[in-house]
Write a structure and sequence with these properties.
The chain has helices at residues 11-22, 30-34, 40-65, 72-80, 82-114, 121-140, 143-167, 187-198, 207-210, 218-247, 250-254, 259-268, 273-305, 322-341, 347-358, 360-376, 384-408, 410-448. The chain is mostly helical.
Length: 464
């Protein structure tokens, strides 16, 4: 039974967790990233938004069935067994702490804009490590503080982005949009190419489901928070990108290193836009790190409860799995040090590629689990209309995630699969330990003549 008193995330905080995790630092570069493909990228964004909302709705339905911390891991294990559950937890865990390192490094560039001057490699490293450990300290303080930081940071980054998106409509000049499809090839090819860049903008839709054990009334609030957070992020993405497209000349936007800053400067003149956007970006990244640090501990915590991850991950304080937070912060810090002292042209980029593939493994398994639950459930207990709707949503979510995998590119899939398969060794060790533990309990039970824990009682002999 769940302890309702320990649930500290209400609907507002859970929604902020989803929105804050989806909107990281990437939004501030997205318009320039997709500008070379033309305004067809806006169509790609719209299509992806529908797929992301379908995935959000599937997570909401799954959370009604299993309102437990661990989200995708819980669903995969329930549907397909321990090994599938482990692969989901392993992939999600590695994705979180590797991407945290990438976010911390991204924050350094925006700090340079806020505090100009000569920066050394050592100072950059200090800033990046600070970006990792400040959110970790908030997590150590408990879910109440995680929620507070998430609410404040989400508001502080959402308001200026939405302001630019809305005010930009008053400065909108259709002549600055450029062609619908830029470059060679077909329009469909341009759509797919733009989508491949935009696909990972929605990673994070599972955040409320992942922390369902800390959400009040999760059967209702997880689904609502997931959908509201995804729609909120989509509004910022779509309106913000459209606003930048319509205020910054296309040829300038393609070469822009700070498209939102250029948009502010185009609207109001001067050069102060860069400082405003850099501040919003730093807040956005710190907020995302706050949420992703919690996510990095939830999946291994859920797996450790079932003996699939080391027992140390079960250490929990004030609703937060503290050992998981510590482990993720240490590993992300190690990657950050590698980035600054071994060089940015090798190991770090390879590991960041892994995150693009690793994120899709739990999504595919979760969508597959929902399809499994629907097809094997009692049909007489499910209204035909709801069954058809839920199955359609699950299939769309599966197709959307499959598209994510295809868009990741060969390098990401190759590196990601290698890292995924490395987890098999961990699973083998943990499975052997579980098996040995069951064997010892069985031997002890036979010596005492008692029933071994977890064993079914033997039926009494029937008289002949």
């Amino acid at each position: 039974m769940h302890d309702r008193h320990n649930r500290r995330f209400g609907l507002g905080t859970a929604t902020a967790l989803v929105m804050g995790n989806i909107i990281g630092g990437g939004i501030f570069l997205l318009p320039a990233s997709v500008a070379p493909f033309g305004t067809v990228s806006l169509v790609a964004f719209g299509v992806l938004t529908l797929g992301a909302i379908s995935l959000a709705l599937v997570f909401g339905r799954l959370a009604q069935r299993h309102p437990d911390t661990g989200g995708p891991y819980v669903y995969a294990r329930e549907a397909f067994g321990d090994f599938a559950g482990f692969l989901s937890a392993w992939s999600y865990w590695t994705m979180t702490w590797v991407s945290n390192a990438a976010l911390a490094v991204a924050a350094v560039g925006y700090v340079h804009v806020l505090i100009p001057g000569h920066a050394s490699r050592g100072m950059d490293l200090v800033v990046a490590l600070g970006a990792l450990w400040l959110p970790a300290l908030a997590n150590f303080a408990g879910t109440r503080y995680v929620g507070a930081v998430q609410l404040v940071s989400t508001v502080l980054k959402f308001v200026p982005l939405l302001f630019i998106a809305i005010v930009g409509m008053f400065f909108f000049d259709p002549h600055k949009l450029g062609a619908f499809h830029e470059g060679g090839g077909s329009t469909l090819g341009g759509l797919s190419a733009a989508a491949a860049i935009l696909l990972y903008s929605y990673v994070g839709v599972e955040s409320a489901a992942m922390s369902a054990g800390e959400v009040r009334d999760p059967e209702r609030n997880v689904g609502r928070a997931t959908v509201l957070g995804t729609i909120g992020a989509a509004v910022v993405y779509l309106l913000g990108t459209l606003s930048v497209f319509g205020t910054v000349a296309h040829d300038k936007l393609v070469a822009s290193k700070a498209p939102f800053s250029d948009a502010v400067d185009a609207m109001f003149g001067g050069q102060w836009g860069g400082t405003v956007i850099a501040a919003a970006a730093v807040i956005s990244i710190v907020g995302a790190l706050n949420g992703w640090t919690l996510m990095s501990a939830q999946s291994p915590y859920a797996a450790a409860k079932d003996g699939l991850f080391p027992a140390a991950f079960l250490t929990k304080r004030r609703g937060v799995p503290t050992f998981g937070v510590l482990a993720a912060a240490v590993l992300a810090s190690a990657l950050t040090v590698i980035n600054y002292f071994i060089g940015s042209g090798g190991v770090f980029e390879i590991l960041v590629l892994i995150t693009t593939f690793s994120a899709t493994v739990p999504y595919l398994l979760a969508a597959g689990a929902q399809i499994y639950f629907l097809l094997t459930g009692r049909r007489d207990k499910v209204r035909p209309a709801r069954f058809a709707r839920d199955l359609t949503l699950a299939l769309v979510a599966f197709g959307f995630t499959f598209w994510l995998v295809a868009g990741a590119g060969y390098a990401a899939i190759y590196q990601g699969v290698l890292f995924l398969f490395a987890g098999i060794l961990v699973y083998a060790v943990m499975a052997a330990r579980r098996s040995a533990g069951r064997g010892r309990r069985q031997d002890a039970a036979e010596e005492t003549g008692e029933q071994a824990p977890g064993e079914a009682p033997q039926p009494a002999p029937v008289a002949g």
